[in-house]
Amino acid sequence: MLRHRLRRAGLLLLAGLSIALSAGHRAEAQGTWPERPIRLIVPFAPGGVTDGIARLSADWLSKTLGQPVPVENRSGANGAIAAEFVARSAPDGYTLFMASASQMVMLPALMQLNFDPVKDFAPVSIVASNPVVFAASTKLGVRTLPEFLDLARRQPGKFDYSSAGTGSSSHLAMALFLSRAGIEMQHVPYRGGAPATQALLTGDVAAHFGNPTDVIPHQGGGSIRLLAIAGPDRLPSLRDVPTFDEAGFPGFRAETWNGIVAPAGTPMAVVQRVAEALGHACQDAEFRASLERLGTTPICGKPADFLGAIQADGALWREAVRISGARLD
User: Fold this and answer.
1) Which of 190, 168, 189 shows the shortest CA–CA distance to 320?
2) CA–CA separation, 100 and 91 (whole Å)
3) What does the pLDDT look like over 52-94, one tens digit per residue?
4) Are 69 and 277 contacting, i.e. CB atoms less than 8 angstroms apart?
5) How many Å apart are CA 76 and CA 121, to the nearest integer?
6) How do residues 178-208 score in pLDDT, each as one tens digit?
7) For residue 136, what is the enclosing H or E element?
8) What are phi and psi of 205, to 5 degrees?
9) Which residues contact 236 (CB under 8 A, 6 or more apart)?
């Protein structure tokens, strides 16, 4: 009997300690947070656009929140490895994820994942958007998007296009565009945006949907012509390149984005504080200019806006995946 009472008392003590620790973590996150460094996980290797946006954001958050924000690169499986790691991390505000549209809206349509992009994360803020740019080889002799469409329609299936790989944003954007334009081209996948762009520069392919950072250095070089931007507005770094609306192909959008998310269950006070800090960042001229130099458009929106983008863009990219027939399983 005594042993039973002692065991019961021990269980009650453990339960009380667990509740107290949990309450303590919540109080820390909501009140004195942050009291130690905050990790910002990046799903790709250093050097790319996502990594650049992450490092700009980490520097700003460190200055604003008063704690170091080290960037930790965890590449592999198109970012799924990093996304699963963050989804399984403690929701205490000390692990954040610089998510891209790839993990949040494309991969779920392309393969089976060990995380749910809606249920397993708390959206914080889209930091910047990244509309893809439609580029054509100057060997085609076309100067505008309507001229390209006219040429491709008169010679269905003759021309090739490059992509950064099957299921990449460049592949899916082109599949969506070709379907809506009613033209046929052959897909040539490469291992990344750089070799896909190089194939266009050498004239091995006729067209490519590229990230601005991949094509901006080559504008005016004589090998490629930038015909249209798949975003709502012109880019500051490409003022002479029209949007698809302006080029006579209204309604076409193909944008990726990068934004910070936290593990689901992270206190809303923490989510709001990070979102507010980033909101101030995009009001800073130097921060905005740094994002624009990466070929991106500063956003720094609210958590609810991020959730809406995940839902809306999920539908768009699911359509693109269906049209392309791409699978990564």
Assistant:
1) 168
2) 20
3) 999 999 999 999 999 999 999 999 988 999 999 999 999 999 9
4) no
5) 19
6) 999 999 999 999 988 889 999 999 999 999 9
7) strand 133-137
8) -130, 165
9) 292
User: What six digits make up the tokens of 14?
Assistant: 């453990």
Give me 300's structure tokens: 């720094």
pLDDT at 31: 64
How, if at all, do strands 95-100 and 71-73 pair?
A: unpaired
Question: How many alpha carbons fall within 13 Å on the CB side of residue 72?
Answer: 18
Structure tokens at 100: 């891209």
Q: Write the single-letter amino acid at 149.
A: L
| DSSP collapsed to 3 states, 64-107 | HHCCCCCEEECCCHHHHHHHHHHHCCCCCCCEEEEEEHHHHHHH
Sequence-ordered list of residues with C-beta below 8 angstroms from that of 146, at least 6 positions apart, any chain: 247, 248
Instruction: Please give the Cα distance from 52 to 48 (Å, whole number).
Output: 6
DSSP structural state of residue 171? H
The token duo for 161 is 């296009």
**Are 134 and 226 a contacting pair, CB within 8 Å?**
yes
- For residue 160, give Cα distances in angstroms to 103, 137, 153, 215, 242: 28, 11, 13, 18, 23
- Closest to 260 measured CA to CA, from 305, 293, 211: 305
Q: Which residues lie below 8 Å from residue 85, measured CB to CB, with a gap of 6+?
A: 41, 74
- The model's pTM: 0.85
The residues, ordered by sequence, that sit 6+ positions from 88 with a Cβ below 8 Å of its Cβ are 115, 263
**Closest to 265 (Cα-Cα) out of 97, 155, 159, 120:** 120
Q: Which positions ≥6 away from 246 have C-beta within 8 Å?
A: 228, 234
Helices 268-281 and 49-65 sit at what angle, rounded to 10 degrees?
A: 110
